[in-house]
């Protein structure tokens, strides 16, 4: 048994959660070391959000164990709550209040007096670049600003683990990048563990480790590079003047087994971007367009489950859990 | 699972942990925060105050004035109907903020602030208590605004109005506690609104707010006797200065021929408030 101080950020053993007869989480074994960015990937309904709900003491596990920073989520919920921050998928800000008030009231929930919380509130608002808007009502904020404020709020109690449920869902691409910059800065400047869920592999690139969840259990885990290596190569799609000739030339000149799809010639290549110039030069066929597609979560997911991630519908969010549990 | 290559940073680099407050103090701080938050929100939403006062004032000024002017034809007792109606209207004024707190509990628990608060290391009972005190405070404010027009409707300005304000605050506490109890039991906002409007009307009609609770025919008398609001309104009526008994025609509520003293009536209100809050807290703290 490790001591509490160097315990992993999250550890679960044979964790189960049933809703009636529906198995939401089935025998989850997970170890997330402290101090990393951990991405939990999976389609809606895979059990990611239910898992976060249990780790954050909002839901009681049906059976099994779960620990956050060495504290049991069932036996020591207050110790766990003291050490976690949580950013829900949907906004839980008080729209009538200003950013500064949202922060201050939240700090008081964690037992900080106004005097104690003031420096922390100021520093965190500065971190997420909202200092100059701190006295505006949150109602007037954009989606990205609200999300940044929620991340700052989640950090108020200097948590060991910050849980983020789909932190970039519903945001435009530029805002997503900005949110990730903030999260990276956060990881650099503090030793907080980031535990987030997502269904975008592009976002998983930002994580130190990821785990793919399906039907309530982890089907694969590793670094993003490891996982993509399993699927293998980038997909290069060529539109050419003569597809059959192109396939032949690719086999003879580069030893690649291509196929002809509806969108053109499809080739699997490691590091497609650097390979394309050589390929075009050596193909001897007129090339009209080239697309290089890195392996997607869909590919990785397909590899492990035999299904496409898009087949699984059924949105489950922490909001549903809040509704069920509170 | 394998460990990652990324070495966790040394603990010493972490920002200094704030000294954890003593748990009771922490809960008190949370209660105070929720109460204060309610006050801030109320202050920022003045239209809500105006809207909340419309219905009670309509009863007082339209129904009250109308029936008073009919007094010449139908009977002497109605001559001071507006002052008779006044205690009931005071109680009615505390309903709007209580319902608002109830709605915020239903709503915030699903998609807002309260859901976030549930993750804080604070007892859920404290969360409810803070919300309840906030609602009671708002209710007292509404009641206070109605008390300002006591003079024009025949209730003299007198220090006893301050005692009445305290009583109104207790009623507001009871209403908010009942609103929170309903909110904790009901998950859908639509259902909550239906239940509330279904309950409020009979509660008011059967409370002696609009007609004297004594000497009613059997079934109606029993219903009025069972209604806790009857005693709340009677307590306020007996506290307010001036003649609020329709020139002696109105008889207060009686239990088996016994007229409960004002303090007993208020004790019933407080007991109901805490009973409702306890049941609500029990239901609320049950995790799934």
UniProtKB/TrEMBL annotation, chain A:
Tagged with keyword Ribonucleoprotein: no
A GO term from the CC aspect: plasma membrane
SMART domains documented for this protein: AAA (SM00382)
Any one Gene Ontology BP term: daunorubicin transport
Record domain ABC transporter: where: 10-240
GO MF annotation: an example: ATP hydrolysis activity
Official protein name in the record: ABC-2 type transport system ATP-binding protein
Source organism of the structure: Herbihabitans rhizosphaerae
UniProtKB/TrEMBL annotation, chain B:
Gene Ontology annotations of biological process type: response to antibiotic
ABC transmembrane type-2 domain location: 47-287
Region (Disordered): 1-24
Location in the cell: Cell membrane; Membrane
Transmembrane segments: 49-72, 84-107, 127-150, 162-185, 192-211, 262-281
Membrane topology, as annotated: Multi-pass membrane protein
Pfam families referenced in this protein's UniProt entry, alphabetically: ABC2_membrane
Molecular-function GO terms, alphabetical: ABC-type transporter activity
Alphabetically ordered keywords of this record: Antibiotic resistance, Cell membrane, Membrane, Transmembrane, Transmembrane helix, Transport
One GO cellular component, as annotated: ATP-binding cassette (ABC) transporter complex
InterPro entries the record matches: ABC2_TM (IPR013525), ABC2_TM_bact-type (IPR047817), ABC_2_transport (IPR000412), Nod_factor_ABC_transporter (IPR051784)
Domain of life: Bacteria
Family of the protein in this entry: Belongs to the ABC-2 integral membrane protein family.
PANTHER family to which the protein is assigned, alphabetical: NODULATION PROTEIN J
The protein's name: Transport permease protein
Native species: Herbihabitans rhizosphaerae
Species classification: Bacteria, Bacillati, Actinomycetota, Actinomycetes, Pseudonocardiales
């Amino acid at each position: 048994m490790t001591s509490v101080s160097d315990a992993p950020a999250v550890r679960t053993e044979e964790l189960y959660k049933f809703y009636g007869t529906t198995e939401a989480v089935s025998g989850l074994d997970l170890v997330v070391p402290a101090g990393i960015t951990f991405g939990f990937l999976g389609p809606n309904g895979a059990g990611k959000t239910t898992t976060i709900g249990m780790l954050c003491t909002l839901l009681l596990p049906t059976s099994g164990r779960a620990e956050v920073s060495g504290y049991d989520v069932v036996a020591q919920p207050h110790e766990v709550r003291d050490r976690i921050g949580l950013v829900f998928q949907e906004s839980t800000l008080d729209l009538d209040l200003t950013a500064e008030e949202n922060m201050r009231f939240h700090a008081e929930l964690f037992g900080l007096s106004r005097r104690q919380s003031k420096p922390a509130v100021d520093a965190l608002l500065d971190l997420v670049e909202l200092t100059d808007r701190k006295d505006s009502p949150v109602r007037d904020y954009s989606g990205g600003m609200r999300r940044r404020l929620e991340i700052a709020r989640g950090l108020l109690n200097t948590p060991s683990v910050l849980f983020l449920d789909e932190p970039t869902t519903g945001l435009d691409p530029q805002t997503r990048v900005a949110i990730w910059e903030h999260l990276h800065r956060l990881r650099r400047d503090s030793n907080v563990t980031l535990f987030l869920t997502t269904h975008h592999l592009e976002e998983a690139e930002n994580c130190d480790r990821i785990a793919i969840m399906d039907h309530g259990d982890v089907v694969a885990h590793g670094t993003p590079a490891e996982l993509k290596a399993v699927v293998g190569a980038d997909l290069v799609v060529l539109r050419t003047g003569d597809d059959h000739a192109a396939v032949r030339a690719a086999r003879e000149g580069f030893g690649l087994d291509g196929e002809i799809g509806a969108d053109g010639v499809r080739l699997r290549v490691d590091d497609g971007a650097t390979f394309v110039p050589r390929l075009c030069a050596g193909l001897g066929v007129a090339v009209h367009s080239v697309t290089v597609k890195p392996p997607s979560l869909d590919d990785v997911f397909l590899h492990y489950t035999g299904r496409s991630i898009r087949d699984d519908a059924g949105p489950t969010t922490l909001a549903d859990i809040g509704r069920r549990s509170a | 699972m394998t460990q990652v290559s990324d070495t966790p940073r040394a603990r010493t680099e972490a920002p200094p942990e704030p000294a954890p407050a003593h748990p009771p103090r922490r809960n008190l701080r949370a209660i105070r925060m929720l109460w204060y938050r309610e006050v801030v929100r109320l202050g920022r939403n003045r239209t809500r105050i105006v809207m909340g006062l419309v219905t009670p004032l309509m009863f007082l000024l339209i129904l009250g004035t109308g029936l008073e002017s009919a007094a010449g034809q139908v009977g002497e007792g109605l001559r001071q109907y507006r002052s008779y109606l006044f205690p009931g209207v005071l109680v009615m004024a505390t309903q709007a903020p209580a319902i608002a707190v109830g709605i915020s509990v239903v709503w915030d628990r699903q998609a807002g602030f309260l859901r976030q608060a549930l993750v804080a290391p604070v007892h859920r009972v404290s969360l409810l208590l803070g919300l309840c005190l906030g609602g009671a405070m708002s209710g007292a404010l509404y009641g206070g605004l109605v008390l300002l027009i006591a003079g024009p409707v025949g209730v003299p300005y007198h220090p006893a109005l301050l005692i009445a304000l305290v009583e109104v605050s207790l009623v507001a506490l009871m209403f908010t506690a009942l609103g929170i109890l309903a909110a904790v039991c009901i998950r859908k906002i639509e259902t909550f609104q239906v239940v509330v409007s279904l309950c409020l009307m009979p509660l008011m009609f059967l409370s002696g707010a609009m007609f004297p609770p004594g000497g009613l025919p059997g079934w109606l008398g029993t219903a009025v006797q069972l209604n806790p609001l009857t005693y709340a309104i009677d307590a306020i009526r007996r506290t307010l200065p001036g003649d609020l008994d329709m020139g002696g025609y109105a008889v207060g509520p009686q239990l088996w021929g016994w007229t409960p003293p004002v303090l007993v009536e208020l004790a019933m209100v407080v007991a109901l408030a805490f009973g409702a809050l306890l049941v609500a807290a029990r239901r609320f703290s049950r995790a799934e």
